[in-house]
Amino acid sequence: MSHANPIARHLAEPGMEDDLRQRPEVRRNWRVAAAGVIALLLPILAPATAQEQAQRVRVDSVQEQPMTQTVEVIGRLVPRRAGSVAARIDAAVDRVLVEVGDRVEQGQVIAVLEPESLKARRDQAAGRLAVAFAQHKTKEAELVLARQELKRLEGLKTSAAFSQARYDDARQAVAIAAAEVAEAESAGVTARADLELAEINLRHAEIRAPFGGVITERMIEAGAYVQVGDEAVRIVGDEELELEADVPFQRLSGLVPGVEMDVELDDGTRHKARVRAIVPDENPLTRTRAVRFIPAFGETQKPLAANQSVTLLIPIGQPRNVLTVHKDAITKRGPASLVHVVSNGSVSIRPVTLGVPVGSRFEIVRGLSQGDVVVVRGNERLRDGQKVLVDRGS
Fold it and tell me: Looking at the domain assignment, is residue 88 inside a domain?
């Protein structure tokens, strides 16, 4: 009887079977050797169906989307309201109520000037107004008397007791009394204005914040003397910030009021900003113009500050529609860019020409069509023509 298996044929040689029965250690060695040979031969003798099993992959579609090329321009945050708060009267500083770094609200008292002399001036002006009011009343009464005398003399015109000279004097007295009433009234207006000015000065003894913000500098101390116009503090309205950037003149074509673009802060967060105005004043040295943007800040990782640097992505052309593919679909073999296109349950490897990046995707210049389905996960070891199963999970 012939044996196709070489191991069996060796075991069938004369005397080998008796030797194995009589020597157990030889029998064990043969069993180990036979198991090793079988293990080595199994991959060769096994069918190739395991290599042909479909591989599970994730896919994405080739999409058409608008793209605008941009250029980075460094800008800065600028407050819409910032400046110094000055004294409006001449007076000594009684006390200062804020420190550098304090946040103040609109109308909050920043410092108080010495009010005693101002109150005395207010009372003095109020007294002059009272005197002017009394004098006005007196002059009005004198005018009434002068008119009564004139009226009495007019009633005597037909009698022998009428005196033309007295009548003329009475008419003149009425005119003089009327003029004195007008003068007293004018003096009252002046006295009232002086009182209002004194009250205004007294109110200005409290230096108040004209808008909300943060105190960045303090120039006065208690005991100092300030005059009208002297700076007390500086305030920056950090809650009303705009963006300003010096944009090269050749990049201004895509910037018109209302155009929206991306803005990146130094903490890595991205936000939106809208063009508010282009300042019509070009720097002849740098050939740039200042452009103001209204930002729409979302959540930031760091507090915002005036003069903080920002990066604006300025559009340099009109938007255009391009085909894009997810960046994870691209594999590299040397200089070539390849994608695995899924069709009818199998993949075909296709070379593509890439354009510019569009977010997390790449522009496809050549090699794909809209709606093509490409592998984005599991494409590292795929062969051309290999069967795949699309994973529908998230």
Answer: no
- Say which CATH number the domain at 253 has: 2.40.30.170
227 occurs within a structural domain: no
Instruction: Check whether 82 has a pLDDT greater than 50.
Output: yes
Number of domains in the chain: 4
For the chain, state the CA radius of gyration: 49
Integer Cα distance of 114 and 121 in angstroms: 13
Which amino acid is present at 325? V
| pLDDT at residue 43, rounded to an integer | 42
Which tens digits make up the pLDDT trace of 309-338? 999 988 876 667 889 999 999 998 888 999
Rounded to the nearest integer, the mean pLDDT of the chain is 84
Listed in sequence order, the residues at least 6 apart from 183 whose beta carbon sits closer than 8 Å to its beta carbon are: 139
Residues 301 and 379 in one domain: no
Q: For residue 173, what are the CA distances in angstroms to 146, 179, 182? A: 6, 10, 14
What mean pLDDT comes out for the span 385-389? Answer: 90
Find the DSSP H helices in the chain: 6-11, 16-22, 24-45, 116-154, 164-203
Q: Are residues 258 and 274 in the same domain?
A: yes
Give the residue numbers spanning the domain of 381. Answer: 55-67+320-390
pLDDT given for residue 52 in this prediction: 54
